[in-house]
Structures are given as C-alpha cells and as structure tokens.
Amino acid sequence: MSTPIVLAVDGGNSKTDVLVTDSEGQVLGSARGPGASPHSIGLAASVAAIERLVLAALAEAGLPDDRPFGRHCALYLAGLDLPEEETAYRNALVARNWADSVTVGNDAFALLRAGTSDGVGVAVVCGAGINCVGVGADGRVHRFPALGRISGDWGGGLFLGEEALWWAVRAEDGRGPGTALLAAVKAHFDVSSVVELVHRLHVGDLPHAVLHELCPVLFAVAALGDEVAQRVVDRLVDEVSVLATVSLRRLGMTGGEPVVVLGGGVLTAAADTVIAEIERRCRKVAPRAAVRVAALAPVVGAALAGLDAVGATPDAKRRLSVSGDQRLEQYK
C-alpha cells in the first residue's frame, strides 16, 4: 500500500479541498467540503472541520487513520492573514499530530505555487475578498494585512456585488446616473424593484452573502458598454494592478521576468480583456512580467509546496500537476 507523504489543504471562504499524495506525485485520496476559515468559524472549529475532510480523503484512499497521517502537511487557508494567526493554527495541527512536519500559510501562497514552477513571484487572489503575496528569489516575502477596508483594501466578490447594488439603487431613486445594472439586478433576483431587494436583505429574508452573485452580473453589464459598471471594473483592475506592482517593487523584481499569478473566483471568471489590462499595467512597472491566471487549482499548489518540502523529484511534481487536476474534475 502506498504511504501518504503529503496532506495538502486549500481553504477559501466557500470551499475547502484536501489532497493526499505519495512521494511519486500520485493522488491517493481527496475530499471537498465547505469553507472552514478560522476567521469565520474560529480556530478549533476550523481544525475539526478540516480534520474530518483529511480523514475522508484517507478513507477514500484505503489508508489507515493512524497518526501522524503523513510525512508533511501543507495547509493554506483564507483568514490566516497575520503571522500570529498562522503560528496559532500551526501549533494546533502539531498538537493533533497530523504530520511529522507542518507548513501553514494564507491561501494566496497556494495560488502562487500553483501558478509558478518554484513559488517565486507575486499572486493576487480575488474571491470573496482580495489579497496579494509575493516571494522573491532570495526568499523574502511581501504581503498585506488583507483585513478589508480597515487595512486599505478595495475589492472582492462580495464587495463588487455591493457596489453593483449601490449603483442600481441610486439609478432607481434618482440619486445617481442611469445604468443597465438596474435592470440586470432586478432580473437576477426576480424583483420588481431594487427597493424590494433591499427590504428583503434588511429583514433577513435573503442573506447578505447573496450579493456575491452580482459580481458576474457586474462584469456582464460592463462588457456591454455600460459606463457605470465599467468604472467599477476599471477600479478593480487598478486595485489588482497596484497590489501586484507594489509587491514587485518591494521585492526588487521589476527588472527581471517576474511571474504574476491571478486567481480566485472573480479573476478566473474575468474576461480576457480584463486580464490583458492588468498585464499592461503591471508591465509599466516590470516590462518583462508574465501575468497569468493560474491553470491549476490552489490545492494542487499546496500539494506541490508539500512535495517541495519533502524533496520530491521534478518528475513527481509534474505527475502531481496532472493527477491532482484530474482528481478535482469529479467536483465540478
């Protein structure tokens, strides 16, 4: 029976993925569950929820649940935004004896490894929220607190949904310019007026999180030429570009050929024109920068980082890139 070498975990705000791999890069087991960010449900509940997924992945592989579960655990989660949060989570995993060694970090680092051959470069993730991390060839790390507006952030799927509703409301009541967002928002939620939607949100008939659904609506309306929607999308492009270029400057990567990896539900669903504009702005600062949307899922990046940690061969990592991506197809 194959021995589990790496336990890889990637968790965003909406879902958590687990892969168990051997030293040859073969995926032995996998599991997917709901988001388990410690910021949302607390550290203890997060660890317990993810442990259930790890046990499910081991069971799928026909492997025992004896501790330690594997040689190395590479875990990356949304909500681990500060070094002390990462340390606390790592200590919790060590106490539960998941693996002989443990790496814990923000989920943006998994995205960075998924989009690069060595984990060096800059990654911007825009899902429910927005974040950016950078790792230089010398190992230096640059990151932002990514705590929302209190730490200077602008963007994320929920935020963009709120913006779409804000402009639709003001178009309906006369405080703002006309915009096709008004009709699009009403159609999406099947309401006769946006005031009706606002009332349902206010009294709790609809959870606030449903506004995340308006993010693709915003992009669709902008693509049709609506000026109001396009201004919001332009602001997002500016924010993503600023995050990336500040990191490139701070790490001294403007003169080489740095990789900028984009990911998260918002950016992976964005039109090619949006990605091209982000690339154009990044290249003003780093002329030879390669800007790309990650082709591999972040949990594959977590597994690759795990194989890095245990000294796996390049062939094993190439094999994992294929087998990990294939295994995740079952969840689509």
UniProtKB/TrEMBL annotation:
Keyword Cell inner membrane: no
GO terms assigned for molecular function: kinase activity
SUPFAM superfamilies hit by this protein: Actin-like ATPase domain
Domain called ATPase BadF/BadG/BcrA/BcrD type: residue spans: 9-305
Record key words, sorted: Kinase, Transferase
Keyword Transferase: yes
PANTHER family (alphabetical): N-ACETYL-D-GLUCOSAMINE KINASE
Record's protein name: N-acetylglucosamine kinase-like BadF-type ATPase
Lineage: Bacteria, Bacillati, Actinomycetota, Actinomycetes, Pseudonocardiales
